[in-house]
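Sequence and fold:
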Amino acid sequence: MSAPRKLVEVRDLKMHFPIHGGFLQRRMGEVKAVDGVTFDIYEGETLGLVGESGCGKSTCGRALIRLYEVTSGEVRIDGRNIAHAGPEALRKMRPTMQMVFQDPQASLNPRMTVASIIGEPLDEHTKLSRKERLERIYELMDQVGLNRDFANRYPHEFSGGQRQRIGIARALALHPKFIVCDEPIAALDVSIQAQVVNLLEDLQEKLGLTYLFISHDLSMVRHIADRVAVMYLGKVVELAPRDRLYTDPQHPYTQALLSAVPEPDPELASGRKRTILTGDVPSPSNPPPGCNFSTRCPKVMEVCRKIDPEFREVAPGQFAACHLLNDPASPPGPDAAAGTEATPINQTGSPT
């Protein structure tokens, strides 16, 4: 059996937003929303991206498909580097990558009908005849479970779940390979969330889609994701196959996150130990020296406040950035002592 192909390759991705102030609006600093992220997404899989609000999840997802101009780093989708591609080259790559937004009401033009919204990508990127365009719109509505009779209605006439289906149909219009799902169920009623997630899973199976599924709902991520990456203050602190991450988390932040997930079984819940983090998340414009999590970590050591830990493989297929997981017989190398970044490690365990 051949190894799965890497559809998305991210290397040391940084997304920094400038801060301007003063009378002349000079650059005073920068918000390090995404600060050196490295991971791969394999063809046909779903990578879950989780973390607290403000950790950089959504910014990372938008940077991957160039909705933001990347500060530095490399993003390859289907073998093509999109991080610094020119406008014309990027336009040709757009059909490969699409996005489903968090708020279906805000992401749909209230003055356009459903047919116009779904058909807009077809107008921009294809030369279909009017009949072919309408047939494709109806086909997409069928795929996401929308009645064809609704084609000439406007977004305000639909429920939240139906509006999200419209957004999904629009994302599917150009036969993409990779879709960023930016908290697609966060704005929906709990009763509708499962329907939308099941729809995404069905479409993935039928169309061979690859997802980056961004969410703060750890229970839903456990249901849909194949692997999970955990972000904290702009960096990925742990990445592992779903079952291994939920049963044996290695990073203290991941352990704290999972301890907060509600347990429906009262007997199991009574035996669980909750990890309570103290303090606030540091500002992304002024992250602490060393490990970003050092100011809140219950297991912090002196080295954590000075040296940024290397993101490395701590178990087969499981990666984490924590000094607690380093071999005590192997002291930090000269690069780490000097405060320079360690060589990023990819999912195969080899330097990138």
Q: What stands out?
A: The chain has a mean pLDDT of 88. The longest strand covers residues 26-42. The CA atoms of residues 81 and 127 lie 26 Å apart.
